[in-house]
Amino acid sequence: MISPSEYMPVINKDEHFFSVILRWAAIDQSFSLFDRSSRHNSVSLKYFLKVDFLKKAMNSLPEFIDKKWFLINSSNLGYCATDTEINLFIGNKSEHKIVKQLYHQTSAQLRWCQLCAANDYSDFGYFFWRNSHQDPRLTRCPKHKLTLSSCCRFCNLQSPTLRSLKKFQSVINCSVCQSALVPPTIKKDLTPFQEWLEELHHLSRRRLLVNKEALFEKVNNSIGSSHLAGGKSWILAQKKFMQAYNDSGAFELFLVKKVEYKATKYYRELRVKNILRDPQKYDSPVVLALLAWTFLSFEERVKLFGSFKKVVC
């Protein structure tokens, strides 16, 4: 934790930045980041999860708070951006984009583990959204193995408004309509790809991140030098990628579920050629991992992404 100012609350370890901002606004009457939404409480959470609002939040921090620590602890830059990219983001020297997650649940929702929330309430007297639970690579709480909660099936992954989040008082209720949620279950069985994604999540918490340029070079070489080469190489590569998307369980991590090859034209974020040609625009940690899973060998994946076997605990 870090010490609070006169008005700013303590930032908890792994607390998501919007959770910090929401608590900050509740105790500081001069808080200005919600000026736009004080008149328009119907503004959805999607707006506050965008990179522009994150920059505003970062630049509103008191001087004694380390901005890099804040971004690593409280935003998804902590598990997807290198130290160099974060430093550029802080200095406004780059237009580096935060992970867009256009088709991930975490682009519209904040997720939580009900057991983590109960423990936090017992320890602190309040619960908060954890940054680690927003990693789109996760299908469950890394600690308790419980499915993560967000909204009920009737709300169909709608993004809650600021008004509903201000009224949000119970972690067993939907964050959109406040109706009771189906109790979470222990998720024991993961596909091999989902297990690897969970490992990547833990590695990223140790700041072990993939070199994206090296990854794209390897994937391009794999597509060009394998049996996929030829006039139909991109078509064959796309078919292989979509088969992996559907068979590996990757689709469970997206708002868009199983997608047949013929429907890929409607989803630019899932087109291999688009991703490789414009990596900054289509920069999802799930997609990066799926590229490696589809086109690279196990040894190549370990070399690029790392492994706990090489980590000294």
Brief account:
The protein is an all-alpha fold and 313 residues long. The protein has helices at residues 17-27, 35-38, 45-48, 51-59, 67-74, 83-91, 114-124, 162-166, 192-205, 212-225, 233-247, 272-277, 285-295, 298-305.
Average the pLDDT over all residues and give the rounded result: 85
Strand content: under 5%
> Helix share of residues?
40-55%
The largest sheet, given as strand count, sense and whether it forms a barrel, is: none
Quaternary structure of the protein: single chain
Q: Specify the number of helices.
A: 14
Span between termini? 22 Å
Describe the structure.
Mean pLDDT is 85; it is low at 1-5 and 98-102. The two termini are 22 Å apart. The longest helix has 15 residues, at 233-247. The chain has helices at residues 17-27, 35-38, 45-48, 51-59, 67-74, 83-91, 114-124, 162-166, 192-205, 212-225, 233-247, 272-277, 285-295, 298-305. By secondary structure, it is an all-alpha fold. α10 packs parallel to α13 (285-295) and α11 crosses α13. The radius of gyration is 20 Å and the shape is globular.
